Amino acid sequence: MSEETLGWVLTYDSYDPDREALHEALCTLGNGYFATRGASPDTADDGTHYPGTYLAGGYNRLTSEVSGRKVENEDLVNLPNWLPLSFCIGEGPWFHIDEVEILSYSQSLDLKRGLLLREIRARDAEGRITRWSEKRLVSMAERHLAALSVTITPENWSGKMQFRSGLDGSVSNNGVARYRQLASQHLDILELDHLGADTLYLRARTNQSRIELAMAARTLVHCEVCDVHPEYETHGSDRRIWQIVTCEAREGAPITAEKVVALHNSRDWAIAEAGLEAKRTLGHAGDFAQLQAAHEIAWRHLWEDCDIELTDGDMAVTELKLRVHIFHCLQTASPHSIDLDVGIPARGWHGEAYRGHIFWDELFIFPFLSLRLPTLTRALLRYRYRRLPEAKRAAREEGFEGAMFPWQSGSNGREETQKLHLNPESGRWNPDNTHRQRHINAAIAFNIWQYYEATDDYEFLTSFGAEMFLEIARFWASIATYNAEIDRYEIKGVMGPDEYHTAYPGIDASAEGGIDNNAYTNVMVAWLMSRTEDVLDAIPTAQAQRLCETMGLSPEERERWYEISRKLRVPFHDDGIISQFEGYDDLEEFDWDGYREKYDDIQRLDRILEAEDDAVNRYKASKQADVLMLFYLFTADELYQIFERLGYPFGPEHLRRNVEYYMARTSHGSTLSGVAHAWVLARSDRPRSWKHFQHTLDSDIADVQGGTTPEGIHTGAMAGTIDLVQRCFVGIDMRGNTLHFDPALPDEIKRIRVRLRYRRQVLDVDVNHDSLVIESRSYSASSIKLAYRGHYRDLAPGETCRFRLIKPDERLRDENRARESRNAAE
Ligand code: BGC
């Protein structure tokens, strides 16, 4: 199979059943409201194909019995399949991709137009050759509509043919092998009907969350060059309904079946009842061509705001991969999501892995959105705000104050991390303790502040952001304990982003798990505590007073936050290596070379070692960037300041040594790891950074983890690679009401052009190795502040600003000078 990589179209030019699930995930079409995998419409769930459709935020809980325990999981429900469409010649058999001889095959995801296209030439057992030409869309213009068009051209036969078009409610959640022992029947089918001859109707309800879903599908058959006289017959079973449309086919004359589908659910705004609305929406929907025209306009507008151009170089492949990433991020969260109560799930609405849950991955996703479609970030942050009461309850239940958001979030903000998870390597169900990743609470606060820096949206801060931020600070202050012996605050029993270390060696992770003083967590908390006063200062004084009053926030409590911000403990070892957590240095070194030889792939060391009756907890081995996340989130200068404030010596030399130390001890078991490492190395080791960048670009497209992408794309890695180009390579940093630039383009990229939105201005940024040009396109806002390596400019709406970039050797001299003057000042 070869993947043709032209700037805007991802093409597969052969059919490979073994890669079909991967292609289904990568060819998913969605609009932020719902998404449908790119499965062949003539197939059902059969081990090769998995036609899933998912509603954004469409969750349901079921209880299963696992290893003698009852466990409840909240899943992203696989909705009835609206795709079924096939044909047969005479009385059959029905066309099925796996049961014909394929003469040629091509499947393309057209990113610019948001279309999935499939062209197949196939010969049946009787030697009859047929061309199948398919177009599909999930409308970005009208969120409740999708459409599928299949044109059949008989090449060497004529006579009676039939189309079969259906709505299939016999689906279950069966997309992830690891979950197959768990309960999976989420839907009650309430109604199956047909409206007139050409329209089918299905109404279903999720059996716990009681979301009612309604689909209405109209299938029309026509031929441009002949009269087909279609005759309809409707059939049904207890969970499915379908139509057989019979017509006359003529050799060489293309016949088209066009299926338009409307989907509503009982949580939609401005509806009387989902079923009624599905019928009404379908009744007013145009044909495929009309839907496509509106859909393409909507996509064009999104691309105008969100594209990245890597011009003047041999970057077509990289550009295409970035566009695939932009495309899938926008299908997961789009302007249609703004009105919904949804977060952005780690695996898109593209499959069932991680059950559609929302994690800290937002940290990697929001910068892309905030600088392009900031109203979207605002909406996604409000998903968190609506769950603030639940986060406060969760903190209280654990004996803490403030708000403790869950590691995995779904419908109502309860902790959704599974209690037990299956290790496919050993076949054992083990306790899942990853909920101890309290650092999610630092990520949410960080995201709030970054959003504010990008937008200056103090109304958001006033109405929602500040309260969340301060409740999170309160949580951290209550979980932190004071150690008088060292005069430091400590945070115990948590986990860092590295999910391998759930507890100290030999300790039962479920009973007294967690590790102490995770450096990433503690530094984030130190930063967060030091920002609390800035948050209060950023909102109008009267509102700040009201908020303090409502929260019962006393000057003493704020004073304590200040103290914590200066006295959090960060463990070190080996003279300047930040210990990932307290006692990390006592762990054993891991035999990386030996294990790389023993296993093809050691990304999931935790599973490998558990299957060997060993435990990854014993080793200096991390799943993903943990300490190095700090170098990803903060600029070097910011970090030096944070450490200085904490009273720990930390400078450029420490930074370099820490990067090397942890790079050598990380298995990259999460796709997020590549983003962080590419970023961290971007200035110090460009070739290695480029390798991580390219590897992360391939995470999903090449399914580098060997089987995870078919279960859903990795939204964090996708958005993270876009952000690497837009913020890391262009060197953007939003700090102190200023948009700082410090470009460091990899040698491979000659020029980057992006359109960014910053504080109500639209900026066209054009950067190469010599110059940086920023053109403000908006005429409706006040000036913003820009800076390039300490040179500040005000940019009024409509103005253009140019900087000549210093060369790498000048940069080095510049940095040395800055360091010397810093040392002299000390
Ligand atoms: C990673 C987490 C991430 C989650 C969802 C896990 O494998 O370790 O950091 O949040 O996947 O993407």
Automatic annotation (TrEMBL):
Residues 323-722 form the Glycoside hydrolase family 65 central catalytic domain. GO terms for molecular function: carbohydrate binding; hydrolase activity, hydrolyzing O-glycosyl compounds; kojibiose phosphorylase activity. SUPFAM superfamilies: Galactose mutarotase-like, Six-hairpin glycosidases. Keywords: Glycosyltransferase, Hydrolase, Transferase. The active site is at E499 (proton donor). Substrate binds at W360, D361, K623, Q624. InterPro entries: 6-hairpin_glycosidase_sf, 6hp_glycosidase-like_sf, Gal_mutarotase_sf_dom, GH65_N, Glyco_hydro_65_C, Glyco_hydro_65_M, Glyco_hydro_65_N, Malt_Pase/Glycosyl_Hdrlase. The keyword Glycosyltransferase applies. Residues 734-789 form the Glycoside hydrolase family 65 C-terminal domain. Its EC number is 2.4.1.230. Coiled coil: none annotated. Residues 11-267 form the Glycoside hydrolase family 65 N-terminal domain. It comes from the Bacteria. GO terms for biological process: carbohydrate metabolic process. Belongs to the glycosyl hydrolase 65 family. This is Kojibiose phosphorylase. The lineage of its organism: Bacteria, Pseudomonadati, Pseudomonadota, Alphaproteobacteria, Hyphomicrobiales.
